[in-house]
């Protein structure tokens, strides 16, 4: 798993902070144009081939943080125009993920490679255990014939020197449902008919090419307009901050939210309802019941394991019930769920009680 403390994640955070500051100052449209230049100033060490290419990629990253799809990128269009579109839209746009081709490394197909650690040993377990006879010894080292290799990994498992390694395609490797593959140009594409929006590809891509479209601009817009915007934070968010009880809630109120709900209250409702439902199902003769809390799991079952669909609980998620409580308390409020999971953003699009989802 790619550690979240990395350069790609830091760039994402910096862009979001810059956008938020500009918007709160009322200068988003006039100032967003300068973000790429400020983050990649003249004379700085380029991350890619040159500083100007870095700025172009940063322009597209800013687009995604504004909630726009980079697939619709037009280099003749100013970032101010994209910012205006973000400020004018009424709801988040589909899809929630966007792929930045310019950042995609077009990683070579996943394969196994023999390193210098190979000793061309007498036992040669890599050769003897290869069912496709894809390994030979040449110039004192094992060699894998790509034409014969089926990427089973048996050679790597049997090498006593750990001299054979797997070169993965991180996003494809991370996807549990095979929703990511290369197009004719070697770039990665997401098949949304298969995708369960687990967010693994976005987390594992070391080039930050898989991006979520932020809804931060939308939320700030409603706060600044004077609407009652309520925050509903997942317990996982609270656990990430070393704060005394009440500090996180106070910080969210200070940020402009009119009221703060901890989604643990929705979790209690879910637990109670699931317990009753489980008891009823067991009495009816059901063999098992699975949770409905994780929208990625529910989507995975519906798309890829339909035989398990009858086993899914009919109880809604903690986010749903907390949103319902918030809307009952104030029907005119704008409800914003804050959590670490991309799947919740997808769930929020279909939930009548959730207006926006901010991903930590």
Your description of this structure?
With 360 residues, the protein is an alpha/beta fold. The chain has three domains: 7-106 and 171-217, Alpha-Beta Plaits, CATH 3.30.70.20; 111-167, 2-Layer Sandwich (Alpha-Beta Plaits), CATH 3.30.70; 226-359. The chain has 16 helices and twelve strands. The strands form five sheets. It has a four-stranded parallel β-sheet with strand order 10-9-11-12, sandwiched between helices. The relative contact order is 0.11.
Average pLDDT rating:
93
Low-confidence stretches: none
Identify the CATH class of the largest domain: Alpha Beta
**What is the annotated CATH architecture of the largest domain?**
2-Layer Sandwich
Number of strands: 12
Number of domains: 3
Structural class: alpha/beta
- The third-level CATH topology of the largest domain is Alpha-Beta Plaits
- What is the approximate shape? globular
Helix content: 40-55%
Largest sheet: spatial strand order? 10-9-11-12
Assembly classification: single chain
Q: How many helices?
A: 16
Describe the main β-sheet briefly: 4 strands, parallel
- Radius of gyration, in Å, reads 24 Å
| Strand percent estimate | 5-15%
């Amino acid at each position: 798993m790619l550690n979240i403390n990395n350069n790609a994640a830091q760039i994402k955070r910096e862009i979001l902070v810059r956008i938020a500051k500009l918007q709160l100052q009322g200068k988003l449209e006039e100032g967003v144009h300068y973000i790429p230049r400020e983050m990649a100033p003249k004379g700085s060490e380029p991350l890619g081939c040159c500083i100007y290419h870095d700025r172009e990629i940063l322009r597209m990253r800013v687009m995604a943080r504004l909630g726009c799809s980079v697939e619709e990128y037009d280099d003749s269009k100013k970032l101010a125009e994209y910012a205006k579109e973000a400020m004018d839209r009424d709801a988040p746009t589909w899809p929630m993920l966007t792929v930045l081709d310019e950042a995609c490394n077009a990683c070579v197909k996943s394969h196994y490679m023999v390193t210098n650690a190979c000793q061309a040993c007498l036992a040669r377990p890599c050769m003897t255990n290869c069912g496709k006879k894809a390994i030979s010894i040449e110039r004192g080292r094992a060699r894998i014939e790509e034409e014969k290799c089926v990427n089973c990994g048996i050679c790597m498992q049997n090498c006593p020197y750990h001299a054979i390694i797997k070169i993965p395609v991180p996003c494809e490797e991370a996807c549990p449902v095979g929703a990511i593959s290369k197009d004719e140009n070697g770039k990665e594409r997401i098949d949304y008919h298969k995708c369960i929006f687990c967010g693994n590809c976005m987390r594992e891509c070391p080039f930050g090419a898989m991006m979520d479209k932020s809804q931060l601009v939308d939320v700030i817009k409603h706060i600044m307009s004077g609407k009652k915007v309520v925050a509903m934070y997942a317990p996982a968010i609270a656990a990430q901050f070393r704060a005394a009880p009440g500090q996180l809630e106070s910080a969210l109120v200070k940020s402009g939210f009119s009221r703060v709900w901890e989604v643990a209250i929705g979790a209690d409702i879910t637990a109670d309802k699931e317990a009753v439902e489980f008891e009823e199902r067991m009495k009816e003769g059901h063999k098992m019941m699975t949770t409905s809390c994780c929208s990625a799991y529910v989507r995975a079952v519906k798309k890829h394991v339909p035989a398990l669909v009858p086993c899914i609980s009919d109880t809604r998620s903690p986010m749903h019930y907390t949103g319902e409580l918030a809307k009952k308390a104030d029907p005119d409020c704008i409800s914003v769920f804050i959590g670490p999971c991309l799947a919740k953003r997808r769930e929020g699009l279909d939930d009548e009680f959730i207006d926006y989802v901010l991903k930590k």
